[in-house]
Amino acid sequence: MGRFPDGFLWGGAISANQIEGAWDVDGKGVSVPDVCTAGSHKVDKRITPTLEPDTFYPSHEACDFYHRYREDIAMLAEMGFKALRLSIAWTRVFPTGEEAEPNELGLAFYDRVFDCCREHGIESIVTLSHYEMPYALASKYNGWAGRELIACFERFCACVFERYRGKVRYWLTLNEMNTGIGRGGAVLNLSTVRGYEGPINGLPDNPAERFQALHHMLVAAARVTALAHERYPEYRIGCMSSFALMYPYTCDPDDAVLVQQRMHVANWFCSDVQVRGYYPSYMRRHFAEKGIEVAMEPDDAETLARGTVDFVTFSYYMSVCLSAHPEKLETTGGNFAFGAKNPYLKTSDWGWQVDPVGLRWSLNAIWDRYQKPVMLVENGLGAYDTVEEDGSIHDPYRIEYLRQHIEQMAEAVADGVDLMGYTSWGPIDLVSASTGEFAKRYGFIYVDRHDDGTGTFERSRKDSFYWYQRVIETNGEDLGGEVSHA
To answer: Where along the sequence do coiled-coil regions lie (predicted)?
Structure first.
């Protein structure tokens, strides 16, 4: 097992809409998540164009990080965090996305957060847009389907780039941009919601609209990347994709070709553009076969070429198997809801197939493809946690999941992958993006908050808190499962 490099960025990742709460405080505008109801891992959450009475909207209070950030960051520092990946809520800065001047109270909040991180020696890694868009832009322009959003996003990014100079060095453009390829991502990421109401995963299929919206996102990301490079040479800009590893279910060559084609579109397309600066050739055939025409302005190609990123980040949670004969297979559930069950893997409470070795494969594939520094910025286990009578929370399942994945990260480092850091998803329990649940917990820190809207918001340390503390202290050398509360 390889040793992690000195200066490795150990930490965790959160997002504004899933943890902050204070949805209408200090001038914040309404975002798309603010009109999403709670769901469960069996029942999809909904979008409501107007707020409904007697309906639970989990982002409105979330985990109250807005008022408790000092306590939370201090606990992360107690674990030894070197980095915290977090996002800026677009609607705190520009409430509708089209204001001429930013909201000073919103900007000041993130000043306090970034200053607090610096006081504790924690590097802030900031995602500019993490499943959070002003609802006004989604309603007026149908989200990223409207080219008008490029200028709105540029204005927002230019503002925060300048404001937080000296406080933030690492920036990610748009979270899991490639999820916009699927129907659910059209709401979560693209926010193409005009005229739509109902369960998120039941969104009507409109591939042409989705790829047009993705093009606008790619152009916007390239523009702000180029802007950062021109004005702030100390900044490092990364892309962020969801990486769902796919295996051929059998040795049938048709299964292998199917996996290659699906991996191209679902996993590689967006990062290929952001790293290489142009549309990959395989997308021409995909567009032709699907009857998709993407409208592009004359200077878009130059923009994409000019705005390539410095490093590559991704999320990794699971893998699936694909077959050219899916009618013969049992499908898997989970966040991605496609593919065949892998008989060699176990699944989480939410049906996600746990595949640590697949992480090593993915890290090597990303490094081999791009030869740019890589960071794993989301990875973790959503599970039910039980608070014992004495207040303790024993989560050996989470420790084992993370231990196995970190072991494979170390193997990838030994393979030669230039791995910058690791920020596990949800170090503090937060709202699930896919279902709006609190019960699906990821954290090292337990938050007393529940799906019926009850709870004190009090924080407490799980066993995994102390385990991860030791992992960071030893730079990944000690991954033993035993836990000390000393």
So the answer is: none
Catalytic residue among 132, 209, 378, 437: 378
Average pLDDT, rounded, for the chain: 93
465 closest CA partner among 409, 411, 426, 407: 426
Say what the pTM is.
0.95
Annotation says 407 is catalytic: no
Could you give the angle at which helices 356-370 and 269-276 cross, rounded to 10 degrees? Answer: 30
The 10s digit of each residue's pLDDT in 144-157 is 999 999 999 999 99
* Pairwise CA distance, residues 302 & 222, whole Å: 10
Q: 333 pLDDT exceeds 70?
A: no
* CA 33 distance to own-chain centroid: 14
**How many Å apart are CA 330 and CA 338, to the nearest integer?**
10
Which is it for the CA torsion 301, 419, 69, 464, positive or negative? Answer: positive
Look up residue 448 and give its two tokens: 């007393």
d(CA 282, CA 233): 33
Contact 438, 449 (CB under 8 A): yes
- Only one residue has tokens 């926010």, namely 191
Asked whether 186 and 192 are in contact (CB, 8 A), the reply is yes
Annotated active-site residue in 176, 209, 411, 437: 176
> In this structure, what DSSP letter does residue 221 have?
H
List the domain boundaries for the chain: 9-473
CATH fit for domain 9-473, picks 3.30.830.10, 3.40.50.2020, 3.30.70.1230, 3.20.20.80: 3.20.20.80
In terms of Cα–Cα distance, which of 217, 203, 185, 95 is closest to 195? 203
Distance CA 486, CA 472 (A): 16
Closest listed residue to residue 480, CA positions, set 406, 425, 413, 369: 406
Tokens of residue 14, six digits: 């959160």
Residue 211's nearest CA partner among 263, 157, 265 is: 265
What is the spatial distance between Cα 275 and Cα 92, in angstroms, rounded to a whole number? Answer: 30
Token pair of 178, please? 């490639």
Cα of first residue to Cα of last residue in the chain, in angstroms, is 28
Rounded Cα gap, residues 70 and 91, in angstroms: 22
Q: 39 pLDDT band (50/70/90 cuts)?
A: confident
176 an active-site residue? yes
List C-alpha distances in Å: 437 to 59, 384, 430: 10, 11, 8
